[in-house]
Write the structure tokens for this entry.
Amino acid sequence: MVTTLTTTNIKLDPKFIAQTIQDIQPHWGPLGWVTYKRTYARWLPEKGRTENWAETVQRVVEGNINLDPRLHDQPDFKLIKELTLEAQQLFKLIYGLAATPSGRNLWISGTDYQKRNGDALNNCWFIAIRPQAYGQSHIVPEYLQPEQVAVSMPFSFLFDQLMKGGGVGFSVVKNNIRQMPAIDQPLELTVLIDSKNKDYQESCQLGAVDKKQWLRDHSLTDSYYYELPDTREGWVLANARVIDFHFNQTNLQHKNKLVLDISKIRPRGERIKGFGGTASGPMPLIEMLFDINTLLNHRVQQQLSAVDCTDICNLIGKTVVAGNVRRSAELALGSGDDADFITMKQDQTQLYHHRWASNNSINVTKNLTDYQPIADAIQENGEPGIVNLNLSQNYGRIVDGYQPGIDQQVEGTNPCGEISLANGEPCNLFEVFPYIAEKQNWDLTEAFTLATRYTKRVTFSNYDWEISRKIIQQNRRIGVSMSGIQDWILSKFGNRVVTGFNDQTHQPIYDQRAVDCFNQLYQAVVAADQNYSQQLHCHPSIKHTTVKPSGTVAKLAGVSEGMHFHYAGYLIQRIRFQDSDPLLQALQQCGYRMEPDIYTEHTICVEFPVKAPNADNPNFASAGSVSIAEQFATQAFLQTYWSDNAVSCTVTFQNNEANQIAPLLEQYRQIIKSTSLLPYYGGSLKQAPKEPITKTQYQQKQADIADNVNVVFDQMQDQQDLELVDQSDCAGGACPIK
């Protein structure tokens, strides 16, 4: 098969793609094609429509394969041939939905945006909230030298990554917060806007003032003046000034007046060309700047607390959410003995204003002996989550034993908890669906090898921040994951992985066949990384495997999400669409039930009947029936034999199981690196995202669906850049779509 090549760019041949489309049928789940079309299919202006699946996969694979650094040095024919064959295998793997890269890659890989912003391929990041230097980064305030330490830097990093669609975990543990200097002076903040700006009236209602009139009546000689460009960086730099000018070390002229001119910020509703979507206008930024400035002014002559720093991060996250194309995912990690941090969400006013913007977790140490207060808090509001940094720093897989300092620089996690990260480091994910891969006759070793090489190439992206470039080059951390784990184990072995518990010790008993299988696949990933690292002359990855929570991506293939059990064997999955979405007409024509969303205006709630694979198997268990003890044991199994990073898991529990939370947290404290818990609601809320139903109800609802929505929609006129309202890349809704 002839492939179009240049010395630096590999392209998949159209004939190869056409043949693959004939040979392979994508394994769409019940929600798969609809989810794909409204979440990952990019608009093609030259064709007047959104991408089809083959075009998306081609874009993604070509964007990734051309990250191989050897292509920059006039590669020989042998290398080009090898990488072309690999690209073809990747295309087959992903096109058939036996595996996919992260949702971020499905959206960004192969676009011009990827070339401009290498960070965009990584889902999530971590930053320690303490004074740091910007270094040689794309954002450096002009009043600072690159190596000058500034309080604003971690907040700027968080703001920038959230604005690029990434989630950010951040640490406000006591060792970080005690490094914050006391605030030296209050700051008088003025926000100017030109009367010609379309958002003038709304901006003035939030505290902005008329630019022309203010400049006529005031002098700038005793003020800092900054005119924001209409860029992401402009928003970040404006906030950096608000923070830094409260501190003498970064306010060398000791001026206490800051004037920010927002006149150039594009008004609400205008298109964002690079990332996609529409602009929110300057209003969320105005509100954030005044809120953060007020918080800092109230702390003059005091050090910021963990709660203060979390509030600043939450206010930033709230601002990012206000743009309708992005969602903000934050995880705040505090100290286990910081009572103010642990209880900060009990302030209902602050919670509804901005503290909802992060999931809060605590770092548990070996000194913690009483888990009951934590269990009580979890039972009340589902927080805090649990993170054990000591385990992450000194262990890969638990079965491989204590390895002192194997990952010593770890300070936190991404928002979903499956990757432990160093300061400035991102997660880098790809997931294989073994249940689907084996049905499509893939050798799993080959599938996981392709996944390993894909993620390794992502580490050669052009990263914006110096702190990230350094740690990525050092660690080359990857996260090869798998989803549909429960489907696969039950299908392959005929039973669940936990076959029982020891009556005396309560330790779980695992199916030895599963132990051997997971161990073999882990070794295949490590071997693939070592081999590719030698070829690329780079460090082997410090860690390799994980279990991400999945969500939207798992829906594509219709498998269980990450390690989680299906919510129910049969259920109604509700998905919300903007009322202008053209998919609604096709869904209605096909017979799907829909109604106005009771929570959000201009939104339609559509019901999809779903049957889990193996739902009729006598050993099938759902989140509503599996015990809390078995869920903990399953997470421990994956942390022991598969993941050398961590395992994302949200354990669901029934009311009568709440008394087991503390004992189970203590039992697995030296095995599980991170976990969270939520009560099982069972679809009791109105228009719940998931509602269990009976097999008979499922069959009745399925019978009402008369046509294939793929076919019907393709016959209708497509439209540009509309969003699926409530999808996320992770099962818990924490990580961003794109």
